[in-house]
Write a structure and sequence with these properties.
Radius of gyration: 18 Å
CATH topology of the largest domain: Fructose-1,6-Bisphosphatase, Chain A, domain 1
Structural class: alpha+beta
Largest sheet: 8 strands, mixed
Shape: globular
Helix content: 25-40%
Number of helices: 7
Order of helices and strands: HEEHEEEHEEEEEEHEHEHEEH
Distance between the termini: 41 Å
Length: about 270
């Protein structure tokens, strides 16, 4: 990654996230029900998902024309003379958006080879930008996120994504919930994995895990960079080092990560 690309890339990602966020904000505030299509069981897409992804790609392409893209709605676009791929979830939390639950996000990550290097998660209703560059820390707006000490297990608030109608392994999630519920202070499933993983880095959650739900790379990539740069340990539940191949994820402070892994793997 050249110095010139590195210097301008995070600013471009911020611009792209805000461009997408404006589209989502307008859609959320519009009167009447939001039209949608079903891509599959419990898998919805709206005009706003597609418009937001288009805005992200066009904003980044103008500044960095050679990068590749992997988008939830547009699929894979090969890179030109670049080893960078931008991974996009233009609206993480579509079901919340459809029901006007104010918890969704724009998620943009960059991958160099197999290494995730940049992550941006933007909550347009709060105008909150969470971001990180590998090796350079994690930030909430212009403020660097402090690495916080881990809470005891009995004080931890844990986020998760749960499976639902014809999507995921409900029995597995039920077993994991049964193992974890008696040991922690609370479990929440708000519905935007990118945001909840980033929130774990910020300290709003003490941990995040998911295995029964089906999470794709664009759901988790940006959050992984932010959480790691904020001092969290991020793995899957089988120690596979490549996030592109994960079917589970666990995010927590290092002091509690292995304890949670043992509980969830029983």
């Amino acid at each position: 990654m050249t110095a010139s690309i590195t210097a301008g890339l995070i600013d471009t990602l911020h611009q792209a996230a805000r461009a997408a966020g404006e589209i989502l904000y307008e859609g959320y505030q519009a009167e009447g029900s939001i039209d949608f299509e079903c891509k599959g069981s419990s898998d919805f897409v709206t005009h706003y998902d597609r418009a937001a992804e288009h805005a992200i790609i066009e904003t980044i392409r103008r500044a960095h024309p050679d990068v590749g893209f992997l988008g939830e709605e547009t699929g894979a676009t090969p890179a030109g003379d670049s080893d960078l791929t931008v991974i996009i979830d233009p609206l993480d939390g579509t079901n919340n958006f459809l029901h006007r639950v104010p918890h969704f996000s724009v998620s943009i990550a960059v991958r160099k080879g197999e290494a995730l290097t940049h992550g941006v998660v933007y909550q347009p209703l709060l105008d909150e930008m969470l971001w990180a560059i590998r090796g350079q820390g994690a930030y909430q707006g212009s403020q660097r996120i402090s690495v916080l000490p881990a809470r005891p297990l009995t004080e931890m608030l844990v986020g998760t994504c749960l499976p639902y109608h014809e999507k995921g392994d409900c029995a597995m999630s039920q077993r994991q919930l049964s193992s974890l519920m008696p040991r922690v202070a609370g479990i929440r499933s708000p519905g935007s994995a990118a945001l909840e993983i980033a929130y774990t880095g910020l300290g709003r959650f003490d941990a995040f895990w998911s295995q029964g739900a089906r999470l794709d790379l664009w759901d988790i990539a940006a959050g992984i960079v932010i959480a790691r740069e904020a001092g969290c340990k991020v793995t899957d539940l089988s120690c596979n080092p490549n996030p592109a191949e994960w079917n589970s994820v666990l995010v927590a402070k290092p002091e509690q990560h292995d304890k949670l892994l043992r509980i969830l793997s029983k």
